[in-house]
């Protein structure tokens, strides 16, 4: 599969990399940069899909001497590794995006928070930051402008919930990695109580890319609600797992599995998890759905982080459910009751089901009720989505689907 | 601001939380992690409500109302969600044959039981899960039973936000999250002040006092022992609550009768010892004031406060009054003066205290004054003993305290409320210094539930700057102000618990602001109703000095009634 935007910069070292996006941005007023990002239709690539330009504009419009940009590189969603790919292969593009967002929002300080397990990415980004300081692309008078920006790398200690922006902020501040109550949103009161933009690695890389063009090719691609391209990391039972850039709306999920990732390994597709393990599974006959935010939502699932996991029909579905439940049981931060107790209890039920080999209707009813409560009342996105996949597998494979 | 709650329109002029708004609309929303004295925390999610246009439910405790908001407090989605969360909570609360409601310390005041009823939980469909954590019995005052803990953080927050003591914390994450002390050392091995505020805050039976009821029963049935009981001023205005009476019901005489029915040989009053404390402390103050001694003088009646100071501000130890607390003074006098009078040996005399306080259990074993008091019961424990003995407290014939250690003044009674020690001391100090009779006995400026009260009191042309402080968080603030020179005082009363002894860690649960105020009113009512309202006019105290102690601060009183402190940092 052709890489659309990223191909031209792959493998470039600092001498070759042009920082065109940043150079263009520095020639413009911050509001113009924001407008360009807004026009591009770029939505946050971390999973929530919030319009990036609006986030930047909110922070820009708040008057405060201190504002922060945080690049969320705590990629912890199982099956998702596109941010790692970006940091390891295109570190300058990621950093460029951070600096641009700093310029656009009037922030002088940035943090890149990388999950502790990404040892290689940490090494590469660290070196890249040092080089940017040497080359006057970070620090004072960036590229001879009067813009000043400092960037610091923070290494996460390895907690999935720190991918939630408020947990991440707590973690940088040295507190427990647990979510904060929203409101206030981080754009108003984030790191150290200051206005803070938290953007995903891919979002910032895309922003840098968008800024590097005079015209706006990004906005010409995709659909109205899902513009541009998306990095999809495909893993599981496919012949060619990897990170691919696909244009929104051009391909269906099935196309991505069959054409981009080389088709399923094994007899046939059992199910596909389209966006990481907090998104609902799609069965084989649900895969003819165009890959866009809106279409996947219609199917009751989500683009999520873009971590697509393909599961062959030969696998034991219950083993996967057990695995996913183990993960969420361990990774809930433990602050809010529904998420902590819900994941703990479901894990126990799922373990029983796994041992037995099949669930009872009573168990499915309880799982459904717990998922309902947790997704309605958990404190952060982690809890809200933690039981979606588990319930969807039980609903789609272990009960007869009732048509309404 | 106009909002609709359950399709009815309400108007509020402030941006309050949904929880406060619904309270004003007389709609009760269940809560567990919420507490009026603490910052809203938003973790139990039982207060979740539906808001029109919102994708998920929102917790009422931390969500503010906005103009035009449409709130549904008990919709289908809300009810279903709450019910499931409650089921999960109960499943993790360690209820099995060994840990059941029947034996729980909070069997009569269980908040989760109450909330489960409000939510209408009728079955628990998930199997119980125990965290398997061991009990913490390292403290002389407080027991922790982590298997009953639901990790609502209220104890942690109370200890930190209100008391600024910070000995409790959250450890681990996810389902392994639990409440513990620093390095898992146990309550007895960290800087715990034993104030027991965590017990009052706990919605389950995960925290309770170290029980001494069994030892007291044993002493009562031992015929070779002469068992004396003393009751603190704050107990009499609270104990009736355990029998269903309205807060603020004064049950002094019923309690005295009940104690006799339990079999105590003599029923005495800590108020007597409070008067004695005032004699010593007022004179100590006058002496320090006249001879350029260490000032400000800090009161030392509250053992939670004393331990807090020893841990956190040892540089102020010399400011502490050397007077023992009334509890300890009583024990010392009972085992010497009174036992001698009766011709009973010290060894055969058993002194039991009934206190609103859990820290008194620790004070009893302090090496500086060990042996004065044998057992300490909280208000709650005494109520349990009454119940066990079948004593219908509200209906027993009323009786008076025994003499002479049961005779007391109104000054002794007000020790039970914050500001009481100060007021009592001022009544005596004024008359000792001036030799004139005090016209107005009520020092209104030191009364009330406020955390820090300051006043200037004129005595014989001298302006005394005094302060009254309750709650350890406020104590820390005031100590810092004194340290930095921002404030200067000559005399400061400190109480570990918010509201003073009426809000003590050993008092009936619930103890909230509304209840505190009612208990406080009752305390001042007792003072008003008494003919003797000044400690130095207590005839039994006068006799004690004539017959035994000589005069305040005498050698004898120093030997029996004064103590020392240690730096614990």
UniProtKB/TrEMBL annotation, chain A:
Keywords: 4Fe-4S, Iron, Iron-sulfur, Metal-binding
Gene3D superfamilies: 3.10.20.600, NADH-ubiquinone oxidoreductase 51kDa subunit, NADH-ubiquinone oxidoreductase 51kDa subunit, iron-sulphur binding domain
GO molecular function: 4 iron, 4 sulfur cluster binding; FMN binding; metal ion binding; NADH dehydrogenase (ubiquinone) activity
Transmembrane segments: none
Keyword field contains Iron: yes
Domain NADH-ubiquinone oxidoreductase 51kDa subunit iron-sulphur binding: from-to ranges: 318-364
Keyword Iron-sulfur attached: yes
Family: Belongs to the complex I 51 kDa subunit family.
Protein name, as recorded: NADH dehydrogenase
UniProtKB/TrEMBL annotation, chain B:
Protein name: Ferredoxin
SMART domains in UniProt: Fe_hyd_SSU, NADH-G_4Fe-4S_3
InterPro entries: 2Fe-2S_ferredoxin-like_sf, 2Fe-2S_ferredoxin-type, 4Fe4S_Fe-S-bd, 4Fe4S_Fe_S_CS, Cytosolic_Fe-S_CAF, Fe_hydrogenase, Fe_hydrogenase_lsu_C, Fe_hydrogenase_ssu
Location (main, coarse): membrane
UniProt entry keywords in alphabetical sequence: 2Fe-2S, 4Fe-4S, Iron, Iron-sulfur, Membrane, Metal-binding, NAD, Repeat, Translocase
Needed co-factor(s): [2Fe-2S] cluster; [4Fe-4S] cluster
GO molecular function per UniProt: 2 iron, 2 sulfur cluster binding; 4 iron, 4 sulfur cluster binding; ferredoxin hydrogenase activity; iron ion binding; NADH dehydrogenase (ubiquinone) activity
One Gene Ontology term from the biological process aspect of the record: ATP synthesis coupled electron transport
């Amino acid at each position: 599969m052709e890489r659309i935007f990223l191909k031209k910069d792959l493998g470039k070292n600092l001498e070759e990399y042009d920082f065109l996006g940043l150079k263009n941005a520095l020639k413009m007023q911050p509001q113009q940069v924001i407008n360009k990002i807004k026009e591009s239709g770029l939505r946050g690539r971390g999973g929530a899909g919030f319009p990036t330009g609006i986030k930047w504009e909110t922070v820009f419009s708040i008057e405060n001497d201190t504002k922060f940009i945080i690049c969320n590189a705590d990629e912890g969603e199982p099956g998702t590794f596109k941010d790692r790919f970006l940091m390891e292969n295109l570190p300058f593009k990621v950093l460029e995006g951070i600096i641009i967002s700093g310029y656009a929002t009037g922030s002088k300080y940035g943090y890149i928070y990388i999950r502790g397990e990404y040892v290689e990415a940490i090494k590469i980004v660290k070196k890249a930051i040092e080089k940017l300081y040497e080359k006057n692309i970070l620090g004072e008078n960036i590229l001879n402008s009067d813009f000043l920006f400092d960037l610091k790398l923070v290494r996460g200690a390895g907690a999935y919930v720190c991918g939630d922006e408020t947990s991440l902020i707590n973690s940088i501040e040295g507190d427990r990695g647990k979510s904060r109550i929203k409101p206030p949103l981080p754009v108003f009161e984030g790191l150290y109580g200051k206005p803070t933009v938290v953007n995903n690695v891919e979002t910032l890389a895309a922003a840098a890319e968008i800024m590097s063009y005079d015209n706006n090719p990004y906005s010409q691609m995709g659909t109205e609600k899902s513009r541009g391209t998306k990095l999809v990391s495909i893993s599981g039972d496919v012949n060619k797992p990897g990170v691919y850039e696909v244009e929104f709306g051009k391909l269906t999920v099935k196309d991505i599995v069959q054409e981009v990732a080389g088709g399923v390994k094994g007899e046939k597709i059992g199910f596909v998890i389209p966006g990481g393990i907090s998104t609902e599974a799609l069965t084989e006959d649900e895969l003819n759905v165009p890959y866009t935010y809106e279409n996947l939502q219609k199917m009751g699932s989500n683009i999520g982080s873009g971590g697509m996991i393909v599961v062959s029909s030969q696998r034991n579905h219950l083993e996967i459910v057990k695995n996913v439940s183990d993960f969420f049981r361990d990774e809930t931060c433990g602050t809010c009751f529904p998420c902590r107790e819900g994941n703990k209890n479901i894990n126990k039920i799922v373990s029983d089901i796994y041992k037995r080999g099949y669930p009872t209707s009573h168990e499915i009813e309880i799982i459904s009720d717990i998922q309902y409560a947790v997704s309605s009342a958990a404190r952060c996105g982690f809890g809200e989505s933690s039981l979606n996949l588990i319930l969807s597998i039980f609903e789609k494979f272990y009960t007869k689907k009732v048509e309404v | 601001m106009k909002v609709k709650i359950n399709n009815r329109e309400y108007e509020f002029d402030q941006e309050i939380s949904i929880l406060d708004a619904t309270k004003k609309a007389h709609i009760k929303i269940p809560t567990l992690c919420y507490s009026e004295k603490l910052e809203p925390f938003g973790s139990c999610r039982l207060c979740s409500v539906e808001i029109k246009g919102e994708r998920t439910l929102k917790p009422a405790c931390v969500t503010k109302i906005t103009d035009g908001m449409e709130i549904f407090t008990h919709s289908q989605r809300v009810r279903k969600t709450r019910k499931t969360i409650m089921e999960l909570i109960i499943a993790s609360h360690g209820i099995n044959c060994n840990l059941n409601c029947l034996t729980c310390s909070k069997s009569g005041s269980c908040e989760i039981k109450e909330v489960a009823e409000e939510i209408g939980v009728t079955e628990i469909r998930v199997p119980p899960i125990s965290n398997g954590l061991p009990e913490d019995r390292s403290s002389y005052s407080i027991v922790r039973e982590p298997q009953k803990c639901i990790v609502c953080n209220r104890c942690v927050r109370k200890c930190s936000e209100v008391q600024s003591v910070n000995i409790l914390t959250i450890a681990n994450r996810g389902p392994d999250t639990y409440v513990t002390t620093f390095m898992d050392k146990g309550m007895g091995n960290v800087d715990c002040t034993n104030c027991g505020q965590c017990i009052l805050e706990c919605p389950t039976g995960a925290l309770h006092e170290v029980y001494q009821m069994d030892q007291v029963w044993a002493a009562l049935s031992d015929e070779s022992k002469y068992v004396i009981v003393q009751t603190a001023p704050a107990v009499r205005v609270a104990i009736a609550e355990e029998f269903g009476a309205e807060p603020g019901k004064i049950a002094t005489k019923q309690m005295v009768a009940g104690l006799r029915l339990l079999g105590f040989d003599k029923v005495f009053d800590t108020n007597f010892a409070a008067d004695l404390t005032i004699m010593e402390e007022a004179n100590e103050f006058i002496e320090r004031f006249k001879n350029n001694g260490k000032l400000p003088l800090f009161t030392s009646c509250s053992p939670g406060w004393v331990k807090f100071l020893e841990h956190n501000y040892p540089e102020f130890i010399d400011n502490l009054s050397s007077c023992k607390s009334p509890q300890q003074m009583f024990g010392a006098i009972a085992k010497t003066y009174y036992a001698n009078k009766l011709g009973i040996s010290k060894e055969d005399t058993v002194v039991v205290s009934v206190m609103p306080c859990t820290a008194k259990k620790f004070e009893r074993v302090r090496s500086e004054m060990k042996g004065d008091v044998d057992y300490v019961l909280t208000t709650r424990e005494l109520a349990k003993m009454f119940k066990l003995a079948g004593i219908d407290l509200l209906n027993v014939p009323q009786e008076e305290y025994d003499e002479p250690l049961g005779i007391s003044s109104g000054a002794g009674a007000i020790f039970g409320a914050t500001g009481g020690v100060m007021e009592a001391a001022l009544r005596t100090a004024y008359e000792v210094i001036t030799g004139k009779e005090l016209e107005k006995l009520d020092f209104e400026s030191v009364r009330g539930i406020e955390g820090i009260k300051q006043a200037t009191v004129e005595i014989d042309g001298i302006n005394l700057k005094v302060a009254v402080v309750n709650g350890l968080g406020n104590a820390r603030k005031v100590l810092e102000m004194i340290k930095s020179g921002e404030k200067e005082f000559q005399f400061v009363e400190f109480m570990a618990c918010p509201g003073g002894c009426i809000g003590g860690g050993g008092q009936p649960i619930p103890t909230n602001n509304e209840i505190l105020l009612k208990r406080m009113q009752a305390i001042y009512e007792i003072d008003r109703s008494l003919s003797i309202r000044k400690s130095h006019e207590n005839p039994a105290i006068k006799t004690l000095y004539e017959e035994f102690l000589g005069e305040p601060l005498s050698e004898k009183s120093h030997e029996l009634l004064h103590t020392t402190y240690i730096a614990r940092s």
